[in-house]
Amino acid sequence: IWAVIVLFTPFLIHHASAAIAKLIPVIDRIDATFNEKYSNSSVTLVTEGPQGRRRFPDFTVSIQTFRPITDVVVRNGTNTPVFTTPNANIFLVKINTKITISTLNGRFSQPFLDTTVSLCDLMKNPQKYHVLALFLFEIRRYGPLPTCPVSANLYVFSNVSLKRMALPTFLSESNFFSEILAKIWTVIVLFTPCTIHTVSCLLSHKVIPILTRVDLQDNLKYLNSSVVVHNTPTETKVDLAITVKRPLPDPWINVIVWIDIASGTLQAPLHNQTFRFCDFLRNPGMSRIGQILHREVKRYGKIPTCPIALELYQYCGISTGAIRLPTFLPEANYIMHVFLGVGKEIVYDSRWHGTLKHLRCTGSMRC
Ligand SMILES: *[C@@H]1O[C@H](CO)[C@@H](O)[C@H](O)[C@H]1NC(C)=O
Ligand SMILES: *[C@@H]1O[C@H](CO)[C@@H](O)[C@H](O)[C@H]1NC(C)=O
Ligand SMILES: *[C@@H]1O[C@H](CO)[C@@H](O)[C@H](O)[C@H]1NC(C)=O
Ligand SMILES: *[C@@H]1O[C@H](CO)[C@@H](O)[C@H](O)[C@H]1NC(C)=O
Ligand SMILES: *[C@@H]1O[C@H](CO)[C@@H](O)[C@H](O)[C@H]1NC(C)=O
Q: Where does the UniProt annotation place the signal sequence (predicted)?
């Protein structure tokens, strides 16, 4: 758990005019605790205005993160699955928000809102999260919101006032007390060769994949292929050849990546994405891992176009040394499973086994 923030807010019905009632939250107490390992932050209520009196209390949020917060997630648990999203995003940060409204007389037992969202998804698509978006839209008037991936930095929102926030008026029939509990937690594996988690430490090395073994199963009706792997201490070079012997109508491709984090057993895949191969060739950006592979492979030979011509596709000496993986990934074994299929038939089944290697950046080892 990275932070717990509780806002106690008695709602106020503010009569802007005789005809229009506007409902805004007024905060009278904030309890906030942060996990010191990840963050040195504070949320403070500012009740004193310049004139010594303030109708609507403001609050100041100051968050200093020590580690980058990104979409990519690795989990250190023996049997807990890794979260995955369609774009290989694994959640690092989720926010759980509960809003409980109680009348002045008695408390409703059920929170009227109880939702857990990924911080990055909230920031990318705030309109999906109605109540949270209302807060976010106010907060961002007071300072730039971080973008994802969130880098380790200091984020300050000074003297935030919620007096412009318009709550749904269906709440306005009575006075309420609300309690907002925002829980943010990160699940990170502690792994890097640096002992102190600082930005400069994270920038001082790069992570590249090294290949140790490739298992191939070709459907000889459609194609045959070969792979040769040469390793050096700082990269893997791969010779890859595929002879396509029969048309591949509308092929699909499935890429699954597993990283063996801690226990020696592979857990849920870190990445699992299936897409139409021709869509991918037109727009490699649709798959984050696919895009990385596409960028490297095309430097060493001709990438097929659709419809896929019957010929020999050959790539000599594809290097993994130029691949940049997120530097917080641990030195761990991985398996990348790439299937190519036509309808229900598997045409090409390849399993790429290897290790993620950390290399220090030096004058001759540029990062
Ligand atoms: C972080 O800690 C330092 C030293 O304790 C303090 O001066 C600073 O204000 C803190 N930063 C935040 C954002 O709370
Ligand atoms: C926030 O409010 C306090 C108290 O009124 C004031 O001293 C401070 O300058 C304000 N900060 C900013 C950044 O406006
Ligand atoms: C994973 O967490 C456990 C318990 O906190 C710890 O003992 C272990 O060292 C961690 N493993 C790694 C690789 O960080
Ligand atoms: C596929 O098989 C043919 C015939 O055996 C062979 O000439 C060709 O080199 C093979 N292609 C690959 C990529 O191994
Ligand atoms: C990958 O995702 C597909 C579709 O969501 C699912 O059917 C399949 O079991 C997943 N594979 C693995 C290895 O989890």
A: 1-18
Q: What is the pLDDT of residues 256-282, one digit of tens each?
A: 888 775 444 455 566 788 999 999 999
Q: Decide: 44 in ligand 1 pocket, CB within 6 A.
A: no
In whole angstroms, give the CA distance from residue 300 to residue 63: 45
**224 CA to centre of ligand 4 in angstroms:** 6
- Over the stretch 109-118, which tens digit does the pLDDT of each residue have? 455 566 667 7
* CA-nearest residue, atom 6 of ligand 5: 272
User: Rg for the chain (alpha carbons), in Å?
Assistant: 26
**What distance lies between CA 206 and its chain's CA centroid?**
19
Residue with tokens 């040195």: 40
Task: Find the residues whose C-beta lies inside 6 A of ligand 5.
Answer: 256, 269, 272
Residue type, 180: I
The pTM assigned to this predicted structure is 0.50
User: What are the structural domains, with CATH classification, of the chain?
Assistant: 2-48+56-73+88-187 (no CATH), 205-360 (2.70.220.10)
- Closest CA to ligand 3's atom 10: 76
Q: CA-to-CA distance for 188 and 270, rounded, in angstroms?
A: 14
The residue type of 359 is L
What is the arithmetic mean of pLDDT over 76-90? 31
Residues in the chain: 367
Ligand closest to 271 (CA) is 5
